[in-house]
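Deliverable D4.2, example record:
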Amino acid sequence: MLKKQMRKNFKELRDKLNTEDVLKNSEAILKTLTPYPFWQEAKHIMCYLSFGNEVQTKSIIERAWQENKQVIIPVCQPKTFEIIPSHLISFDDLEPRTMGILEPKEGRLRPVNPEIIQLVLVPGVAFDLSGHRIGFGAGYYDRFLPKLTPGTPKIALAYEIQLSPITLPADQYDMKMDYICTEKKLYKAL
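Output generated by the structure prediction step:
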């Protein structure tokens, strides 16, 4: 129950951000993220396609392409609650699908082996400085992240307002983040 209430409260906080703040903070997050070795050295980056007031990822994806990185997007499978990692070549390959989220058009899904991914950028509703995350409640990422090569950096993209001052509730299936990247700084999970 606590998790559900916290999810609701943090989502409401995030949804109150105006478009200007979302864009400004998202650009600041891009600038914070890209100088680090985990970004510089990664050739295969998994990045979600932002929806609503999430940290906007279009400019992150464009930056990755400019740097000749392969971009892999998570494609959610509602029947199995699994993620298929798919190579993204162009935004033209996408269209709004499940819940209005951009996904590959028919015939444009290009599955890849999760083990090639060298960096994962993860969305969520709330995070604490220990790396705990409250997602959207379906467990997609908690099922997917264990398929990565051990040691692959898992970085949450979040606004400062999504950081919880108290430890978030977690169970043994909840995957912890290695870092939380906000508009102010990169936090290494404790």
